[in-house]
Amino acid sequence: MKGYTFKVLPVGSKPNNDAAKPQPVDDKDRPKPAAKPSSGGSTPTAQGAAATTPLNTGTATSTTGALASTGSSSAMPQLALAGGAAVVLGAGAVFVTRRRKAADRT
After folding, report:
1. CA gap 40, 22 in Å, rounded
2. What is the pLDDT along the chain (106 residues), one digit of tens a residue?
3. Whole-model pTM above 0.85?
């Protein structure tokens, strides 16, 4: 977290000129830039790669595995029906209660 120093001035006052100019900041939280590789550096590799295989070899590679499962659960239709039934039962209970109250007043 960074802290910013500021001063609340009364209405109508003008800040002095020094306050309006940017001040140098000692930013200890900012990460340092990565060191550049030496002139005899190696070719870039995929992150986490165990072998030192170059990235741009020009040959196609095969992939293995499967994509993550997305979408809704197979239980969604049953949950939707149960929720719809609860709404219908609640609406019916409100309707019956109001009708009985109206019948009692007459």
Report:
1. 41
2. 778 788 787 888 777 666 566 667 667 777 777 766 655 556 666 666 555 555 556 666 667 777 777 777 788 899 999 999 999 999 999 999 998 888 887 7
3. no
